[in-house]
Amino acid sequence: MMYRDAYIAEVTKRLPQNMREDVALELESTIADMTSENPSQEELFGALRQLGDPVILASRYLERPLHVIGPALYPTFISILKIVLPIALAVSGITAALGVIVGYSDEASWGQAIIQGIIQIVGAMIQVGIQSVFWVGLVFALIERYSSSRDTVPLSKWDPTQLKPVALPKRQISRASVIGGFVWTAIWIGIYLNASNLIRLYWEDQSMPLLNEEALQFFLPAVVALAALEVGFGIYKWVKGFWTIPMAIWNLVFNLFWIIGTLLFLTHPELFSAEALQQFGNLLGLSAAEAENMKNWAIWSLFVLFLVIATIDTVDGFLRTRTSGGRKK
Amino acid sequence: MTDRVSPLLTELRRGTLTLAVLSQLKQPQYGYSLVQALEQSAVSIDQSTLYPLLRRLEKQQLVSSTWDTTESRPRKYYVLTEEGQQVLNELYSEWKQLSGNLQNLLEGGTSQ
Hints:
The complex is a heterodimer.
Chain A: H1 2-12, H2 17-34, H3 41-51, H4 54-62, H5 74-102, H6 110-146, H7 175-193, H8 195-198, E1 200-203, E2 206-209, H9 213-240, H10 245-267, H11 274-284, H12 288-321
Helix pairs in contact in A: 1-2, 1-4, 5-6, 5-7, 6-9, 7-9, 9-10, 10-12, 11-12
Chain B: H1 5-23, E1 29-30, H2 31-40, H3 47-59, E2 63-68, E3 75-80, H4 82-108
Antiparallel strand pairs in B: 1-3, 2-3
Domain Transcription regulator PadR N-terminal (chain B): 19-89
Pfam families (chain B): PadR
InterPro entries (chain B): Metal_resp_DNA-bind_regulator, Tscrpt_reg_PadR_N, WH-like_DNA-bd_sf, WH_DNA-bd_sf
């Protein structure tokens, strides 16, 4: 009876608490019905084979799919992955390579530098590749789980009057724009990850990082989350195909995140390395206060620029939801 | 049976399962007796489909269940509810029409 109980446990452990006892009892009596009293192991196995894989049996009791991404979404998932992955790999590879080149110092021998550089570049690409597949997969899993499934909506409820007019060109979201968005995400996250190598203060034949490594590390989780959100939103736009009001609202929320994040980032007191600022002042013959002023000026112009872009993007999202422009009754 | 036919056959049978199960539940039946009753009429049903199906029908209030503990081992009996009986009748008449139509279609060969 050890195998019988093990089988039943395999099924019931996948079920909610309130179903377990009843299902276990029913399976127990069913298996007893299928076999003679005190069955041999072979006989018991025969009965269990008829009942089949306990995982499948449990999923049928649950009436829930066994898949994370089902056939309806799978083709889109693959096509998104085919776009996201090369972009992510290319951009992470290029930015890492730039970082390696800029960060090159004479101290190491050529051979050493090349090997180290390759390790750094490949490492960055692998990391970014895994991250992209994970986040894209997560977005699709969530869509699969929480979107109203086609199977459960009775077809009889559908009526031609529900048909929306074919989206006006203005409302349509071109795939190119979504892909452009992915490229944009990949570029800024690539720059961010290599900021200490790429964003530097250069003078004569020297350079030093302009930003503090600690501050960059501090913001990293938020930056990754923001990038994931941006990619997730891009996928959502791709799947939907045209602008809707909820989408415009999400766009607003997303842009708010962007702006708040940028504000927090730019105004972080430790963002700029004091050393670099001092060097900057020395180079231009500015006093510490003047250099500080200039820094603030740069920060706020940058922020205003982002604010303007985000505002335009948000407003554009809402404008695009309008179906006007000759919609017939 | 060729490999090409069997998946199609599974699909063909799937829709008739509910009707087959409901038809056998005018009298109370427990899981395994139902399997045997269906098999006697050469209707084979995957057991891993049957038990969850019974539970779903119960949730839809087409059948009701009771545990009988008087015998040597407890058994869960399922029987049609009044609503289930109505549904069965409707499905049955639909089925008769459907199979008749299909028969015509298959034997008539061409349309019209």
